[in-house]
Specification:
Blueprint (H helix, E strand, L loop, with lengths): L1 E5 L4 H12 L3 E5 L13 H5 L4 E4 L8 H22 L3 E7 L9 H15 L4 E6 L6 H7 L1 E2 L2 E4 L3 E2 L4 H12 L7 E5 L4 E2 H11 L5 E4 L20 E4 L4 H7 L7
Helix pairs in contact: 1-6, 3-4, 5-7
The structure holds NADP nicotinamide-adenine-dinucleotide phosphate.
The site of NADP nicotinamide-adenine-dinucleotide phosphate has 26 residues, from helix 1 and strand 4.
Length: about 250
């Protein structure tokens, strides 16, 4: 069947397109690179012709509060209205574990708005909430660096490999719409500080990681269990140590 991957040139999207093609589906990558812009609607009607499923793994180029909300709301509205016209039967979105748990950050609020628009639409849907990708650890470390030291809150994480995220999303995309949210996570739970420490050590990065109850997550407060799944349906098999050994240069996200 024809499956359109919105954000198909991105980290998850490019892996997802390959997975779906390997499963024998006509997977088509759609993003600005290929003339499809979900913000303006450009190219959407054409790419959706004959599509059974749309998987949205796009991301906002800006994480600034207003810009990120505008991106996920406008893109999702445009997608859903064009999908209804094209007769799309299943819309899958990749979201983040914890987006509905207070205290939210602006990015989480925008992802929750994206989920809510989908839940209210007439298109059958599946929401896959994933934990942080291993590939995201350098960004997490850089965002928490102040004066050469990394300060993180006393929180838990359960990260997973982007390859495992793509495999789990592919499985959902080819199945029946779930019309609910499912959570996926990695095989191990770490303290936030230990996760970063292990990643940095493997990259010979000597920055000190300090647990600081006043530290936030990308500038917003974070509770101990905000980022870990409550009721995980799928566990990515790849362990962080294995991934660190296999990827010398982590992909910046
Ligand atoms: N990072 C994490 O740890 C994490 C954890 C859980 C869930 N997620 C979710 O995973 C999703 C995918 O993340 P990712 O890291 O794979 O993203 P990414 O690598 O940054 O890719 C983003 C994609 O969005 C496309 N895009 C941006 N603006 C667009 C527009 N106006 N119209 C059409 N396409 C547009 C980009 O392509 P062009 O530039 O060609 O348009 C690109 O293909 C995100 O929604 C994120 O919320 C992330």
């Amino acid at each position: 069947m024809k499956i359109v991957v919105i954000g198909g040139s991105g980290l998850i999207g490019s892996k997802l397109v390959k997975n779906l093609q390997a499963m024998g589906h006509e997977a088509v990558a759609a993003s600005r690179q290929s003339g499809v812009n979900t913000l303006t609607g450009e190219g959407l009607a054409g790419i959706l012709q004959g599509a059974s499923v749309v998987v949205d793994v796009s991301n906002s180029p800006s994480f600034e509060e207003k810009a990120v909300m505008a991106f996920f709301e406008t893109s999702t509205r445009n997608l859903l209205s064009k999908e209804a016209a094209a007769g799309v039967r299943h819309h899958v979105v990749l979201s983040v574990v914890g987006v509905d748990r207070p205290p939210q950050n602006p990015y989480f609020r925008a992802k929750l708005a994206q989920e809510t628009l989908l839940q209210k639409s007439s298109i059958p849907y599946s929401i896959v909430r994933a934990t942080q990708f291993f590939e995201f650890f350098p960004s997490m470390a850089d965002a928490a660096t102040d004066g050469g030291k990394i300060r993180v809150p006393p929180a838990l994480v359960q990260p997973m490999a982007a390859d495992d995220v793509a495999a789990a999303v592919a499985k959902v995309a080819v199945g029946q719409p779930l019309n609910k949210m499912v959570e996926i996570g990695g095989p191990n739970r770490f303290s936030y500080d230990d996760f970063l420490r292990q990643g940095l050590a493997a990259r010979n990065d000597s920055r000190e990681v300090i647990v600081d109850p006043k530290a936030g997550y990308f500038g917003a407060p974070l509770n101990e269990r905000t980022l870990v799944p409550d009721d995980q349906t799928e566990t990515g098999p790849t362990h962080f140590k294995t991934w660190l050994g296999a990827t010398r240069t982590p992909v910046e996200n």
